[in-house]
Each structure stands twice: as C-alpha cells, then as structure tokens.
Design goal:
With about 350 residues, the chain is α/β, with parallel strands linked by helices. The protein has twelve helices and ten strands. It has a single domain, classed as Thiamin diphosphate (ThDP)-binding fold, Pyr/PP domains (Rossmann fold, 3-Layer(aba) Sandwich), CATH 3.40.50. The structure holds thiamine diphosphate and magnesium ion.
Length: about 350
C-alpha cells in the first residue's frame, strides 16, 4: 500500500520543480529545450513507488518527473538541466538525457522509442543474471508508432524478459493529436502482439500504483507487461527558448482534463478519507498547504543555488562520456578510447 501523503509530496515536488524549470526557461537560463511533466505526475510517482530501488528505470525526453520519483536529488537535477557543475551528468547532458546510476536511472533518450530496446537489453541482463529484478521503461503514446517499440515488445515476449513498459497516453504527439496518426491505440498494439496489457487512469496515483505493483510481480516472474496510463499534459509539449508555445489543443478538452488534475485528486482523496470527522478534514487540508509551502521553499533554494553554480569547463566536454571501467576480462580499448581535449 502506498502512503497517499508521501505520494502527494512527491507529486507536488515534481509539479513545483517543473514550474521552476519553466520560469528558468522563460528567463533564457535553460540551454536547449524542456519538455514539462506537469499533469502526468501520478504516473511516475505511482509506478516508481512500486519498483524495488535497485530495479533499473529507462526514460525519455520528458524525464524530470521520472528522475525525481526515482530518487534523483533535486539539486543535481536542477544543475543538470541548467547546464551547471554539480549536475547529475556533470552539467553536460541537459534536460533530455538525465541518468543517475546511484538511483538506477539508466538514462533517457531524446529519440522517440530509442529507450525501449535499451530497456530490453537491461531486462535481458537481469534475466541472464537470474536477479529476479524487473526493468521499468517509460514512453509516450507516440513511441507505439515507431518500429523500435514493436521490436522491443516482440523480443520481450519471445525471451520472457522482466520488462514493464509504461506508456503515458496523453493523446498528443508534439502538436499532433494521436488519433490523427495512428490506426490502433497502444493498448491494442500491445495486446495484438500478445502481451499482457492493463490500462489505468493515469491521473489516479493510487490506481497507477496498484496496477504497476501487479504488473511488476508478473515481470519479475518473466512475463513482460505493458501498462497504458491515460493522462494529459498540463502545460504543453515543449519550450525551446524564452517563449512558450501558443495553445494548440481544444479549450474544451483542456478544461475537461485540467478538472481531473492528479494533485487535486489526491487532495480530494485525503479530505474524503475522513469526511465524517470535520476537524480531521481541516487538518488534512492544512497539511496539503503545508506540504506545498515546504516543497516550494525547498526548491526555490535549490534553483537559486543551481543558478549561482559555474558552467562546466569546456575541456571536460570529452571526458566521462564512456564507461570509466570495463568488466574484468573485457577488451575493446581502441574503440572506446576517449580523445584528449583539443587545446
Ligand atoms: C524518432 C523521432 N522522431 C521524431 C522526433 C520528434 N519528436 C519529439 S517528441 C515527439 C512526439 C512524441 O509523442 P509521444 O511519444 O506521445 O510523447 P509525449 O511528448 O506526448 O510525451 C516527436 C515526434 C523524435 N524525437 N524522434
Ligand atoms: Mg503523447
């Protein structure tokens, strides 16, 4: 069972973190683009509360929420996105390529669906080692239009890989409505390929958690699973530079989804749990306000600190870009030798 207050705090951290990132983007402080995760927080939090802390996670460009929910330190994440020393990847990877081995976040890909075969490889490694651990891969619904998704699902089914593929179905692929460019939904594709596939209300963190916990149990027993979480982006696809994109989605659709905001849903659930005891309800309401205030103060400090940090030395651009050490006995030196920086 997941503690709803803990889940709420985690979801608020992601929301407030992303709002800070967007503020920095508007001020021209973010190199490259940012893909906010606002509105989809319940998916990352619900799923990752169900994984064991040493189960690998693989993400895509909308990865800040996955990273925070995987336990990546907000300070290292903020510095990474802002391209500063002390970032989890040395400030050299940026918003779309977050990795943190200490939290078993294997990496994130900016190429749609490219993370899926990587996740299958990690799952094959776990299976080969007989570890009993699963691997969690996140993707958008657009990934199901890519060949890599079909290949991954097929190989996962054939080899019995301990892989959980979480598809965040938000109805859009960049500025294109998903239904315009697909013939089958991700769930239909997964079931069509013979995989187990559950579909869940992705704005209901408790429901996501239950579905992920059940799916992960099957994965660990060697039965790959797909979980489609239906959700919606609160902001927009991406921001590149200081100017946010204009609104591109129908107003009625946005309003319908924003009324189902995953944070408000938890606030309602926390209050509803004890609706019969008025004082307790007030207490819970105050608690949610307190959590928001605490998280906002914590993250304001994190971003002030990150913005004051240095940018990485350009000479470090070609260091630490390959594995520092190879497994015992492995020889492949020439191919991986890192060039010294050109003076
Ligand atoms: C192979 C590839 N083709 C196109 C793009 C450009 N692109 C970036 S995000 C995106 C939309 C993907 O939508 P979806 O998978 O639903 O994820 P969402 O952004 O909605 O979370 C596209 C087409 C890309 N990054 N990689
Ligand atoms: Mg999408």
């Amino acid at each position: 069972m997941m503690d709803l207050s803990d889940a709420y705090r985690e979801m608020v951290r992601i929301r407030v973190f992303e709002e800070q990132v967007l503020r920095c983007a508007a001020a021209g402080q973010v190199p490259g683009s940012v893909h906010p995760y606002t509105g989809q927080e319940a998916v990352a939090v619900g799923v990752l509360a169900a994984r064991q802390p040493d189960e690998w996670v693989v993400s895509f460009y909308r990865c800040h929420g996955h990273a925070l929910a995987a336990g990546v330190a907000a300070a290292g994440l903020a510095r990474e996105i802002l391209g500063r020393v002390g970032g989890v990847c040395g400030g050299k990877a940026g918003s779309m390529h977050i990795a943190d081995r200490s939290r078993y976040l294997l990496g994130a890909s900016s190429i749609v669906a490219a993370q899926l075969p990587i996740a299958a490889g990690a799952a094959l490694a776990e299976k080969t080692a007989g570890s009993g651990r699963a691997v969690v891969a996140f993707c958008g619904d657009g990934a199901f239009g890519a060949g890599a998704a079909y290949e991954t699902l097929t190989v996962a089914a054939v080899l019995g890989l301990p892989l959980l593929l979480v598809c965040e179905e938000n109805g859009w692929q960049d500025h294109t409505p998903s239904d315009l460019v697909r013939h089958r939904t991700p769930g239909e594709v997964a079931r069509g390929l013979g995989l187990d596939c559950d579909e869940v209300d992705g704005n209901d963190v408790a429901a996501v958690h239950r579905a992920a916990a059940a799916a992960l149990a099957h994965c660990r027993a060697g039965r790959p699973q797909v979980l489609v979480a239906h959700t919606y982006l609160r902001h927009f696809h991406a921001q590149i530079g200081p100017q946010p994109p204009g609104e591109y989605r129908p107003a009625a659709e946005r309003e319908r989804w924003l009324a189902q905001d995953p944070l408000s849903r938890v606030e309602a659930a926390l209050a509803g749990l004890s609706a019969e005891i008025h004082e307790r309800t007030v207490e819970i309401h105050e608690r949610t306000v307190e959590i928001r205030e605490q998280v906002t103060a914590e993250l304001a400090e994190v971003f002030t600190d990150a913005l004051a940090a240095d940018r990485p030395d350009p000479a470090s651009a070609v260091t630490a870009v390959t594995a520092a050490a190879w497994p015992p006995g492995a020889t492949w030196p020439e191919a991986v030798t890192v060039r010294e920086p050109v003076a």
